[in-house]
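Practice problem: predict the structure.
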Amino acid sequence: MNTNMSWIKAVLTIVASLVFSLLLVEALLRFTGAIPPLKYQKQIFQEHKDLGWLFKPGSHALYDPYQRVVSVNIAQNGFRQGIKDAPKNTSLENKRVLIIGDSVTAGLQVSSGETFSDILTSNENGLYAYNYGVNGYSTDQALMVLEENIDRIQPDLVVYAFVLNDPDGNAIDRIKIDDKIYGKPSFDDKLNFKPKPFSVISSSSSTTLKIKDFLRLHSRIFNLISIVKNNVLNLDKKNESLARRMCAAYSLDRFSTSKIHSDKWDMTTKLISQMKEVSEDSGSKFALFNTPHPVFADNNVRKTVLNCFTTNDQSINSVSEWLESIAKIGDIDIIDFSTIEADKFGEKNDCKLVFALDDGRILDGHLTECGHRFAAQVIEDELKHLYGW
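Answer:
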């Protein structure tokens, strides 16, 4: 009996000592201000009867991707930037550029003012860019956004920011955004709209997110552990491992058959052609932008991703060639760049263009602040070349 009591006391003493030590470290971190609290909020999406989902109008969030706190503001129209957000010095003489796309365009990984659309506007080059990108959107939803907003904005140019996974997105009927699964609208072969209202909350995922959000906000120790995990551990090997996992996922995914592979690219071609028609019917020019992609992560990730896409008949080169072919057939202007240009920009500015990790997910591929500056430079240079703007 005494032995059992001694064992219990020893365990309780160890637990109490551990709790006291953690509280002491927490108090020290708070007192010194070494690790600030990270106010973290991701619930800025809501269902939409046609599009499936959209940003919550007027919402604001602070994100902490890679321990870099960024501020995100959503306009009242449900996008990162609306007509009412135009700066006071924007004149009617400025060329209006409507940019449609997905999370790469939306740019939640950087603060308001740092997306490539914001940079295009702030460069005082006679352009005003409207950021109408939304996380998870593919070509079909981008077309719907264009049809809904082009008459109101009356842009001089519509730019569709194409991303590698857009054709895949055009072939699925639902997608997970944070802790919700939203139904994706789709089109049949004749581009007739087929709405699919659907939303399921994953309770386990929601509970996990709530716990993480609470700890990020209230625990300096939790944030310290996150910083150590992301900055001290050997991330090169981790990046390479995650890229390999992504490659394995692609080799087993539902698009592996040649018929489905062909169908999804054919559908994407039709949707892009429709974008051009809608734009020109409204008196706007139309251009395709081949956005920077995951190959601009570190060399290990680049090598593995290139091998992966080549193995699965989705090589970076073949995607660029496909874009060039539909641009030529459809008489579509294309805004593109070379890996050499991207490398030179990164070396000159001593920065990486894309994030390689995203809170443990397989691979991120979203643009860093440096990547957004590069994208803005590419677009600005090409618009001068194409239109003399």
